Amino acid sequence: MEKKEDQKLETTETTNNSRRQFLKSSGIAVGGIAVGSALGGILGMYGKEEEAPAATPAESQPAQQHDHALQYFTNRADFEKLGQATERIFPEDENGPGAIALGVPYYIDHQLAGKWGINAKEYRQGPFFEGVPEQGYQSQLKHHQVFDLGLEALDKYSQEKFDALFVALDGEQQDEVLTAFENDEVKIPGLRSSLFFELLRKTTIEGVYADPLYGGNKGMAGWKMKEYPGVQMSYADKVEETEFLKIEPKSLHDTHN
Amino acid sequence: MVTKLPKTDVVTVGVGWTGGIIAAELSKAGLKVVGLERGGDRSTENFAMKHDELRYALRYELMQDLSRETLTFRHNSKQRALPMRQYGAFLLGNGVGGAGTHWNGMTDRYNPYDFEIRSKTIEKYGESKIDPELTIQDWGITYDEMEPYYTKFELMAGISGDETPLRGHRSEPFPNPALKKTPAMDIFFDATKEMGLDPFVIPAANNSQAYDNPDGQHLAACQYNGFCERFGCEFGAKGSPNTTVIPTALKTGNFELRANSEVLEILHEGGKATGVLYMDTRTGERFEQPAEVVAVTSYTFNNNRLLLNSGLGTPYDPKTGRGTIGKNYCYQVIVGNDGFFDDEKFNSAIGSGGLAAVLDNFNADNFDHSDYDFLHGGSVLMGQKGKRPIDENQVPSGTPRWGKEFKAQSLKYYNRHLNLYTYGAQLPTVHNYLDLDPTYKDINGYPLLRMTFDFTESDRKRGKFLNQQTRKILEAMGATHISDDTNMDHFDMTRYQATHNTGGVIMGADPETSAVNNYLQMWEHDNVFVVGGSAYAHQSGYNATATLGALAYRASEGIIDYSKKGGSLA
Ligand SMILES: Cc1cc2nc3c(=O)[nH]c(=O)nc-3n(C[C@H](O)[C@H](O)[C@H](O)COP(=O)(O)OP(=O)(O)OC[C@H]3O[C@@H](n4cnc5c(N)ncnc54)[C@H](O)[C@@H]3O)c2cc1C
């Protein structure tokens, strides 16, 4: 029992040491900010802009993001196409990064490879019938199959309409294609095109704002744009505050490490 | 093969709020209780990673696994009922603590009017006021009889609250002061007071200060960091079965908690239950647990389903109106508006599940209905539960749903948006009921429950009226833009509204029109107590849990009495 406690202590020590080590070597001034929170931001790659001097190579050279590889897609072209579609849903603009820079396509890839992709916690017994909209999802297809068919249809429809693949279209044309999907104007055997569009929209937004743990919301930049502080332990002394509080976000990584 | 276990005094089917309360009260009184819970065990230590919106709120980590079991739904008997394949309108609890682990914590008593709704309506407005389509009936109990049990529930869960003149009398003040108000709540208070209304802070199980309850359980103080609804509290600062009644029951030594134990049937012979048949969900082994008393505490849906699948009670027949099991299924009328404030900026992430400004001026019979063609009303709220970033992307009407403008507007308004909504009453009719689905089965081969449900004309009128109030208040609060009113054409299974499903095993004074008496004891099987929202004869304009908690205390008294002298308690 005691031994375990000791070990635990030791690990924390090591983590703290490596944190200090990192801070020392990175040359970043942490100021009054709790080490945990600042570090979370730095490891999250964007760092605290005002405190991380531009000269720091860490800013332009992010730590390797090992989860940015493919678990579900087998072919780069499909992944690129998915990326471009998500970028139209949540584009880069003067507010900050869009879906691609946020890692959203990786988020979706990982979701399709996991239990959501195969509707693991959903009722999947037949018979399947189309219901009224208020009866919800009644497709015999699993989420990952909806993406497979939907992405295939993106190209098919783009070819028909513009004689080019989806990725070769300009932004406005891509929007036109996606709008047709949204409005159920695209015929896909076995699938309403709006179902694909709705899942694409839903997962894109998830990838922007889910904890970076899941591969999107890179550097918590989704949260930063929204001025959402992420994972905070207590607001007990802030709940009555009338001024808007600028709080540097933290993530589950900070809670856990 | 079924292994027969030694007999116990009482077995509970499920260990959530109602099962937990029954277990605590009976084991304190010296009865031996076995709690069978189909889901796993868990407590505060399991919630360190709770600030994960995706895992808990959108992938339903703590909820019933629908691949094993769900229900089917149709609007009316002409439609084909189809399974609820994914979650939407409501979320079903699973695991020790039930939905009580991940509830928000808003804690309302029902209005004195509710318990005698039929008599009081006739007394004041005459019988013709009641739409013949509605099957409202008195509950067989009065508010005064309920009052001591509400108090017990509130003291146990450490409810933090404000007094208001528009609710029933209280024998004791709330055990804790109301939660702190956010600046947005001050705007709601100022605007509604100006309108001559009576705002207050809704009573909540999110404790405003550290608290020791009468059973000696310690609750920490709420940190206002959101993540209550759909999440367990990592500080133990929310009154939940896990922080209160379950440890209390375990402390007595008279309570045996068996997790991963799914009850398949209630066994009975000669009009009396003999126990339950259950399965260890990990090994697949089946057991018979004999018991003197069976407490059915598995939430509204499985309370109904287990009775129907076990052949207990008389199923309701919507054609003749006879029979009771499945009758008066009700939900809730939830309407409202989003308000967008161009000149304000709120700290929208800050809040607590049960933190809300509320008013009851349009609830129950608190206003004169002579000039309205509907009964009852609802509470009007502005919640401050801590906005979550994936779920909350409200934009003013007319904004595209995606693309550049959506992005800009959803970012801009995240901290400049407030939502007003209602918990509106939803009154029963012959057309809305629960029975067994003829087609779809659960993983063990038992029929799923089938819900036949839609809003009635009177619900739509009540909804419209309540929506006018939320809009007016937002205008008075200075909202720059206000979203469209809620569409009440049909009940929508895909939009989250509330896990406030009631009825089907309703209480009353007459065995012809109710399934249980006012101790929640079945008229037809006196050693079966069916405890939960399933006992409500209608849905009122409030959050649903305090009333089922109070009824669980009452049923506990009934079971103790029954175990001494037997027979019907009414
Ligand atoms: C997200 C959310 C927020 C909520 N917020 C509020 C709120 O703010 N205010 C409010 O008043 N109410 C709220 N509620 C509702 C509240 O949680 C329920 O009213 C309350 O938990 C019901 O208590 P119960 O004992 O009937 O059911 P539960 O607490 O759900 O317990 C039932 C238990 O029975 C178990 N069970 C079911 N079938 C079987 C079986 N066959 N065998 C063994 N075990 C079984 C289940 O696994 C479950 O653990 C909320 C609910 C949810 C989901």
TrEMBL record, chain A:
<feature type="compositionally biased region" description="Polar residues">
    <location>
        <begin position="12"/>
        <end position="22"/>
    </location>
</feature>
<feature type="compositionally biased region" description="Basic and acidic residues">
    <location>
        <begin position="1"/>
        <end position="11"/>
    </location>
</feature>
<feature type="region of interest" description="Disordered">
    <location>
        <begin position="1"/>
        <end position="22"/>
    </location>
</feature>
<protein>
    <submittedName>
        <fullName>Gluconate 2-dehydrogenase subunit 3 family protein</fullName>
    </submittedName>
</protein>
<keyword id="KW-1133">Transmembrane helix</keyword>
<dbReference type="InterPro" id="IPR019546">
    <property type="entry name" value="TAT_signal_bac_arc"/>
</dbReference>
<dbReference type="Pfam" id="PF13618">
    <property type="entry name" value="Gluconate_2-dh3"/>
</dbReference>
<dbReference type="InterPro" id="IPR006311">
    <property type="entry name" value="TAT_signal"/>
</dbReference>
<keyword id="KW-0812">Transmembrane</keyword>
<dbReference type="InterPro" id="IPR027056">
    <property type="entry name" value="Gluconate_2DH_su3"/>
</dbReference>
<keyword id="KW-0472">Membrane</keyword>
<feature type="transmembrane region" description="Helical">
    <location>
        <begin position="28"/>
        <end position="47"/>
    </location>
</feature>
TrEMBL record, chain B:
<feature type="domain" description="Glucose-methanol-choline oxidoreductase N-terminal">
    <location>
        <begin position="208"/>
        <end position="330"/>
    </location>
</feature>
<keyword id="KW-0274">FAD</keyword>
<dbReference type="Pfam" id="PF05199">
    <property type="entry name" value="GMC_oxred_C"/>
</dbReference>
<dbReference type="Pfam" id="PF00732">
    <property type="entry name" value="GMC_oxred_N"/>
</dbReference>
<keyword id="KW-0560">Oxidoreductase</keyword>
<protein>
    <submittedName>
        <fullName>GMC family oxidoreductase</fullName>
    </submittedName>
</protein>
<keyword id="KW-0285">Flavoprotein</keyword>
<dbReference type="InterPro" id="IPR000172">
    <property type="entry name" value="GMC_OxRdtase_N"/>
</dbReference>
<dbReference type="InterPro" id="IPR036188">
    <property type="entry name" value="FAD/NAD-bd_sf"/>
</dbReference>
<dbReference type="InterPro" id="IPR007867">
    <property type="entry name" value="GMC_OxRtase_C"/>
</dbReference>
<comment type="similarity">
    <text>Belongs to the GMC oxidoreductase family.</text>
</comment>
<feature type="domain" description="Glucose-methanol-choline oxidoreductase C-terminal">
    <location>
        <begin position="428"/>
        <end position="552"/>
    </location>
</feature>
